[in-house]
């Protein structure tokens, strides 16, 4: 009697043998309750943070960081079109990252290399 | 040598974007390490804070996907450490981590 109850517990679909994958296969969690949704969705936070930083002076922009943002955005844009199925969600977030990174880099390059003769006059970014 | 050739030609090897995608994510870690030497005034609180949340989420993502992706987990665990450290440097420079003094310190 106790054995069969233990067996029932052991074999329950949401019991100790269950991995989260099989849980997700039985649809006990909706798509938006899973990290598979939230992690890629939060990648927008990086682009939003970068857009907020458009207002900062170019001296404060970091070359290594913006190169990493741009390179990641470009590479993952291609990745999302090569996998099966094509992942337009991932594509869009990485295109946005690449665009914000390129813009920040252009602002900093413009100040560092293209305005050397006009240091005293304000330059439009 | 043949193992190297097998890797170079594998469907997740260096000739494919499946390789370079995760490699690109290590760029954030390297950028963070390089920026550790910079003065804290140059750190962006927005970007560093976003990175802390981003890597925390992707550590869990790498753990939960099938198959489990230990390389991606290691990458985001490293980035989480670097970005948290940079965030603490930024917060300290902004005055957020000071003890309360009798004279109000902003």
Task: Explain the overall architecture.
The complex is a heterodimer of chains A (about 120) and B (about 110). Chain A has helices spanning about 1-10, 20-25, 35-40, 45-50, 65-80, 90-115. Chain A has about 120 residues and is mostly helical. Chain A has a domain at about 60-125. In chain A, helix 4 runs parallel beside helix 6. Chain B has a domain at about 45-95. Chain B has helices at about 1-10, 15-35, 45-65, 70-95. The mean pLDDT of chain B is about 85. The interface of A and B includes residues 39, 56, 64 and 82 of A.
SS-based structural class of chain B? mainly alpha
In terms of per-residue confidence, which ranges of chain B show pLDDT below 50 for 5 or more consecutive residues? none
| Rg of chain A, alpha carbons | 24 Å
Distance between the termini of chain B: 61 Å
Overall, the morphology of chain B is: elongated
Apparent shape of chain A: elongated
Q: Estimate what percentage of residues of chain B fall within beta strands.
A: under 5%
Cα Rg of chain B: 19 Å
State the helicity of chain A in percent bands.
55-70%
Organism (chain B): Carex littledalei
Keywords (chain B): Membrane, Mitochondrion, Mitochondrion inner membrane, Pyruvate, Transmembrane, Transmembrane helix, Transport
GO biological process, one term (chain B): pyruvate import into mitochondria
GO cellular component, one term (chain B): mitochondrial inner membrane
């Amino acid at each position: 009697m106790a054995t069969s109850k233990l067996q029932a517990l052991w074999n329950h679909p949401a019991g100790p043998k269950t991995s989260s994958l099989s849980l997700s296969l039985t649809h006990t969690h909706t798509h938006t309750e899973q990290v598979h949704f939230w992690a890629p969705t939060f990648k927008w936070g990086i682009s939003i943070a970068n857009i907020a930083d458009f207002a900062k002076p170019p001296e404060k922009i970091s070359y290594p960081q913006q190169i990493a943002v741009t390179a990641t955005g470009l590479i993952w844009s291609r990745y999302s079109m090569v996998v099966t199925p094509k992942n337009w969600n991932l594509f869009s977030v990485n295109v946005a990252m690449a665009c914000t990174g390129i813009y920040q880099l252009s602002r900093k390059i413009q100040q560092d290399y293209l305005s050397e003769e006009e240091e005293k006059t304000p330059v439009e970014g | 040598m043949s193992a190297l050739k097998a890797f170079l030609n594998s469907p997740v090897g260096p000739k494919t974007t499946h390789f370079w995608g995760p490699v690109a994510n290590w760029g954030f870690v390297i950028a963070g390490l390089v920026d550790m030497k910079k003065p804290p005034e140059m750190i962006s609180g927005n970007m560093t804070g976003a990175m802390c949340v981003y890597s925390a989420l992707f550590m869990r993502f790498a753990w939960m996907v099938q198959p489990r992706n230990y390389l991606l987990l290691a990458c985001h665990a490293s980035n989480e450490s670097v970005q948290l450290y940079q965030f603490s440097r930024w917060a300290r420079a902004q005055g957020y981590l000071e003890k309360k003094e009798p004279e109000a310190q902003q």
